[in-house]
Amino acid sequence: MTQVWDGHKRRIEIQEVGTRDGLQSEAQFVATDDKIALVNALSQCGLPRIEVTAFVSPQAIPALKDAEIVMNEITRQPGLIYGALVPNLVGAQRAIAAHADELNMVMSATETHNLCNLRMTQAQSFSALTAVAACAKDAGVALNVSLSCCFGCPMDGEVREATVMDWCRCFMDTPGVTGISLCDTTGMAYPSQVHALTRAFLSRWPESALTLHFHNTRGMGLANILAAIDAGAYRFDASLGGIGGCPYAPGASGNVCTEEVVHALALMGYDTGIALDALLAAAEQLQILIGHEVPSQLVKAGQRLDLHPRPAGFEDIRMRALGRQASK
Ligand code: COA
Ligand code: ZN
User: Hey, which bits of the chain come out as E strands?
Assistant: First the structure.
């Protein structure tokens, strides 16, 4: 895969998925105007792409039943790619009519999760993908495929690397598909596994647009991103505040947190192009919209060099210590 370098810093592309993966499982409905304002705020943060919403069944995901209005009424920043998740042809047609820049068609690496999440067999989903790809190609719209549960399934257990690679081969052979995301839907991925699968994928398709999608369910999200970078990947999904999770995957919880990832990568000399202060302000606002705290450690702790005043009585402590030192 061709890496993009900016001076001495390696460029990492983060797609914000908080308004889709994040909001899809929130109990409190976020008002349509608030969603639009949130996407508009995120559009000011320097993100290269935002997955705005999902054109799925409103019965399946009531939280995103306003997808058309949100997609149509956001204020678009030139150059920023505004995408949407779709599960089938109806969703793709709705997303294209609402002027999505990119479709993200989802299916699972396991039959069980595919049936639970999409009410279709994998064969039915793949047949829908073929129709979606033709439709996207006709419309001149980019099409990413997200393969859920690539690193393990909460119901079926281990997923073989060969199974993932076989599906990826099918996607690569489908005209109209422009990118692939390997998704860790319920935080089952671990760093050495991520490294191996990323290497396997990139050695097979070195020029492809590969995205990695991690959840922090078991605390390995950031470690998995670093392992994937080490293996040559540079595109990742992340969610503002670290919220998110698939409502049809038992035990699912938040995505890797955008501000935590941006903060850590910046310290390590990577360039995401994202303004952390603006992102943190959006994460604070998000807590109000969803009515509870976000998992983000950075919202709680602040940035690494957000310093604290010395404790009361510090001068006395210092003088006493100096006195003891002098009398020795
Ligand atoms: N958007 C809106 N409505 C849709 C739709 C879509 N993408 N796809 C189907 N529908 C409608 C149909 O038109 C039909 O409407 P009707 O009852 O008025 O005739 C109804 O939904 C049922 O259609 P059917 O094809 O039988 O769907 P289903 O009930 O088997 O559900 C999915 C299949 C894929 C639509 C649904 O499971 C879904 O949206 N899943 C997404 C889950 C998700 O987003 N998970 C998290 C992200 S990974
Ligand atoms: Zn996810």
Answer: 5-6, 9-10, 13-16, 49-54, 81-86, 102-108, 142-148, 179-184, 210-214, 235-238
